[in-house]
Prior knowledge:
3 domains
Amino acid sequence: xxPTSSLRTAARLAILPMVGTALVLGASVRAQDASGSLNLxxxxxxxxxxxxxxxxxxxxxxxxxxxxxDVDQRVALIVNASGNKIGDEELQRLxxxxxxxxxxxxxxxxxxxxxxxAIDQAEVDQTYARVASQNFGQDTKAMDAYLNRIGSSPASLxxxxxxxxxxxxxxRRNVQPFVNVSDEEVRDVIKRMQESKGTEEFRVxxxxxxxxxxxxxxxxxxxxxxxEQLKQGGSFQGYARQFSEASTAAVxxxxxxxxxxxxxxxxxxxLQQMSAGQLVGPIETRGGFSILLAIDKRQVLTxxxxxxxxxxxxxxxxxxxGTTAAQASAKAKAFSDAMQAAxxxxxxxxxxxxLGAEVVTNDQMKARDLPAQLQNMVLALTLGETTPPFGSIxxxxxxxxxxxxxxxxxxxxxxxxxxxxxxxxxxxxxxAQTYLRDLRRDAIIDYN
Length: 448
């Protein structure tokens, strides 16, 4: 899948082993034996003890410093996305993982500079403004204040944006031109899709943790802790970016639309029994453990009302600090009455201005991309109607007004270019992992 520019939480995952300074007595570590496994003593004795949870003040990677503040500001984004429900032990583990991610991000930015791949500050600022509008319905000043309030910073998110833009552009120039997909391959995929018309396919999220016989128990325990955090409200996308070792980590673990037959049997069986939004795992698979999230399901090449393309206006109000529940309810009631009295989307802006409300327009929203509890509600609206108000005192109250709707065709045939692009993206991602692995291998790292 194509590298994404979605920047809701932290940067893409890439596992980078921490460098230890402990010396081992009793036997030295020789290069590798003929079987390819390291020749390690069965009962090592350590000359110096080192606590892997003791994060140093800073790390220098190829001469560039990553500080504890850098880590904390990135962690704050993930903690906030998880509803601030991360315990102390989990927080320490998350900090170590974020440090590894920042190290990878640094390597990617450095490689882009070496390869003369430039990202202008204006482009970073433009992307930042788009994220503020799309994800928060705010201007950049409001987003700046939000990031500072949760313990992060605009600079941290902008650096993440620079890292993702640099890596994407680098892959487009150095990797993508060398990935070829033949017309025959595309036609074979389309043929299989047509033969599968009417069968179920699933949009699946996956977190994959690799394991060996030696560390299987520890990895399984780690996977169980991740599942516990997710069930308590943790962000699946955020955890996938931080912990998954699959190439889809960069896109929050999203495998896209797949049929159960495309997965190993140990994953296909539970997937077929899952409903949208259900989480299962950890499931032992070849090479490790998987955690699956059934994001959505549909029938192959069959029209679904949720594929309707909607034009929506979101009208929202906020509450001053110190607003009581009774005051908020009264204001929300007045807001709802005013919205119901509006006669179509053409009258919304002046009414919203009179209420001190904010209006955000989206003309390209698929119904299935709305939160599950809003999908059927919005699909039942006629033009100019609004949903009931929803929100909270902290986040404000909003309504959605339907301004237009284009229903899907009765049967959507697979598009040749889209299928070709999907295959190319998968291959680019695999090569990207190899590219990043080589950058890690050659990096000069100093822990202070």
